Amino acid sequence: MHRVVSRLGWQNWSLTARLMAGSGAALIISAAVLVYTSLHTEVDSNRKMLEERLSDEVDFLLPTITEQAVIGDYANIERLLKVRVKREEINKFAWTDEQGNIVAAAADFTSKEAPDWFIRWVDLPSLERTHEINVGGVRYGKLSFQLTPLPAINALWSGLLDKLQIFILGVGIFFAVIIQILTGGLTPLYRLATGAQKFGQGDYSVRIPAEGAPEMLDSIKAFNSMADSIERLVTSLRESEARKRLLATIVEQSDQAIFTEDLDGVITSWNAGAEELFGYTQEEAVGKPYAMLVPSEDKETLRASERIRSGQKLSCETHMVTRNGTIIDIEISAAPMFDDNGVHSGEITIARDITERKRTEEQLLQAKKAAEAASRAKSDFVANMSHEIRTPMNGILGFTELVLDSDLNLEQRDNLNAVKSSAESLLGVINDILDFSKIEAGRLDIESIPFSLRDGLAQTLKSLELRARQKGLKLTWDVASEIPDSIVGDPVRLRQVIVNLVGNAIKFTEKGEVSVLVEMESHGPSDARLLFWVRDTGIGIPREKQHLIFEAFSQADTSTTREYGGTGLGLTIASRLVGLMGGSIAVESEMDKGSAFRFTINVGVNQDEGRQVREPASPPAQPFQKHPTRPRAVMRILVAEDNPVNQKLAVRLLEKLGHNVHLVENGEAAVEAARSQIFDAVLMDLQMPVMGGLAAVAAIREWEKDRGIHVPVIAMTAHAMQGDRERCLEGGMDGYVSKPIDINALVAALQSIVPSANDAAPPVAPAPAQPAMKPGVNLEILLDRLDNDRALLCDLIGVFMAECPKCIADMEAAVQAKSGEKIHRSAHKFKGSVGSLAAEQAAALALALESAGRSGDLVEAERVFAQLKEETDRLLPQLTEISESFARNAASA
Question: Which residues contact 773 (CB under 8 A, 6 or more apart)?
Answer without folding.
Answer: 629, 840, 841, 844
